[in-house]
Amino acid sequence: MAKTVPAFIDNICMACRVCVIACPFGCLDMTRTGIDRYGKAYPELVSPETCTGCGICARECPVDAIEMV
Amino acid sequence: MNGAMGKVLVVDLTARTWKEEKIDDEIYRNLLAGVGLGAWYLYRNIPPGADPLGPDNILGFTAGLLTGTGAAMTGRWMAVCKSPLTGGWGDSNCGGDLAPAIKQCGYDAIFFRGAADRPVYLYLGGREPEIRDAAPYWGLDAVEAEEALIRDTREKKKPAVAVIGPAGEKRSLIAGISNDLGRYAARSGVGAVMGSKNLKALVLSGARLVKSADPRGIKEVNKEYAAKIRKSNLPELVKGGVLPVMGKVMGSMKSAAPMDGIITAMLLKRYGSTMNNTLSIHNGDAPLKNWGGSEKDYHKGYYKSLNPDRFRKRETHKYHCYACIIGCGGVCDIGDVKEGKYAHTHKPEYETAMVFGGLLMNRDTDSLFYINELLNRAGLDSISTGGAVAFAIECYENKILSPEDTGGLELTWGNSDAIIRLVEKIAAREPGIGELLADGVKAAAARIGQGSEKYAVHAGGQELPMHDPKIDPMLGTVYSADPTPGRHTTSGSLYYSTSELWKRVSWLPALVKHPKTAEYEPTPEEALKNVAYTSYKMLVDGSGGCYYAMMMGVRHFKIFEYLNLATGWNRSPDEYMEVGKRIQTLRQLFNARHGVDMDSFRMHPRAVGEPPLPRGHNQGITLKIDEMIRQYRLGWGWDEKTGYPLPETVARLGLTELLEKEAPLG
User: Fold this and answer.
1) Between chain A and chain B, how many beta carbons pairs sit less than 8 Å apart?
2) What domains can you pick out in chain A, each with its CATH number?
3) What is the reported pTM?
4) Interface of chain A against chain B, CB under 8 Å?
5) Coil, strand or helix: which one is B571?
6) What distance in Å separates the CA atoms of residue B476 and residue B153, rounded to the nearest whole number?
7) B216-271: pLDDT as tens digits
8) Rama region for B173: left / alpha / beta (φ>0; ψ in -120 to 50; rest)
9) Taking the CA of residue B420 as centre, how many other CA atoms within 13 Å lie in the half-sphere pointing to its CB?
10) Contact present, B454 and B570 (Cβ < 8 Å)
11) What value of ipTM does the predicted structure carry?
């Protein structure tokens, strides 16, 4: 487990998938639902064991909806 | 260069070799990436007269200049080639997850020359590109093949896959290319070209990042845009049942005026493109009964079958293409449909719903979901396939096709079981009726004869989409005169009215409220609007932008700002619009180089209103299409008779130097 991992700020996230596709290690997926009225799927750290804490997801997020914590 | 990866990959499938080519910054400055880069490369490297299904054709997969820079709504890729349907320039635009993957592999485009002697796929993810054996995947449908390729090749991150289904393998001219389990580059016959090269798939697994001049500035624009989108919600009181009334009101308006494009976001967030379903029937937008009917033929009792709320009920979650902040797509549960053959499907788009609903007078909603998945798996363009079915039904109804010809299918309007069976036959290119229709309506009518061409609705070989230009004449002009005919995503008056281009582009007069009748006059003013909007579209297609973002207008989707922030160019909207004009003229120059008869692109008489419809919203309308085409050509600086770009236009746009830049390979 990395020292820091992504935490998603749901009221900022637009569910655009940029973080999922940017992650070089395939750690993220769009799997969290039940968050908004539209039934969008939101990103989630599905493989914490492969996350290196590199922060690329946070850097690439178009709206700064990811914090490394 | 900021925004671009600066090189393309060229794969020779005949020789099984590959090489990288650096792209001069001047190409990006003048043509961006995406369709512009594709047009530049193909113009120089496909010899005139090349067989679209032969090894001389080149198939390109291009990503936009803004893709990967963080700019919102810029995750579109384009397939480009010489089209086997029209014989001229071919391109097809698609979302999903392929566009960023192209750039993550280090390229702005991947071009395929030649043809493999047996099925192959391209794998990018290791140190060097690999042309791998595709025998285990050949014959699988597009969904099965994508899932299998991901399963077999995945290392760390999930690769992005572009793939053809059996229809493309069998070179059906109405075949497309899928990615992300059913998002389609469907038009221009691009899937047939991929099949002709024995290329089953691309599997892309890179992780490079795209550099931008001002990534912080891009994020600030995104945040402002995202805040607007987040606030744009359709009131809960508005239900799908209200939409036919909205359509009726829209259709009765005698004037047109500028509109705020953000309303598009409200509707798309809830319904996706199915927002148009019933609305379009009443405002005259939807062609019914193979373009021969009207809303008068579409009984009120039919409306519930196309009510977008009905489509939403099957939606388990929304689907977003890469970098999309709207989420117009959806994944739908269809486990209870047709004995549960398929568990789920992408939510059918308006085009699919209307072509297999209204155009065929089909009221069976479940059949629309089932057909949607059949088409996605077979790898067929839904518009063209639905057009081919409509053609067959009308031939059958008029005794041109007999029960023997149809393999016993009773092809009557709205017979959903027969329609499904026919789609299966087309998908499999089954001898007989399947084989007959698998290359689209133009080819089918040529084979049948007996006056059947009057039921073959197309423009230059491309089946027409589900938007009747009799309510929007600008649409009719681009259907008939654009380098890729028969497209609803190029330009139109309604689209123009939300663009707010006139507030940013110095040569455009302000759009003011005007009588709708003015749009029916073939004037230079109307042509100018068309030139402007199409230039904007080329800009968007060179950037990887989404058409729905484009429809929100430049106030909300700040493409000029995004381009400057990504590249550091600091250019004006006027300069960017010149880029759009250059790309469009280059696409048409491709047609000139290949000797395409541009007059043959004139859309089918039914779409023109020849003869006019006897009843309904569009009753009595005949478009002045020939003069509109003439004005359109003049507006671009193209020859009014041939439609080919005039030498002075080519020179003024700087295309002469660009096309000579470096030695072509062909």
Assistant:
1) 82
2) 6-68 (3.30.70.20)
3) 0.98
4) 12, 14-18, 21-26, 30, 33, 37-41, 50, 56, 60, 62-64
5) coil
6) 45
7) 999 999 999 999 999 999 998 899 999 999 898 989 999 999 999 999 999 999 99
8) alpha
9) 16
10) no
11) 0.98
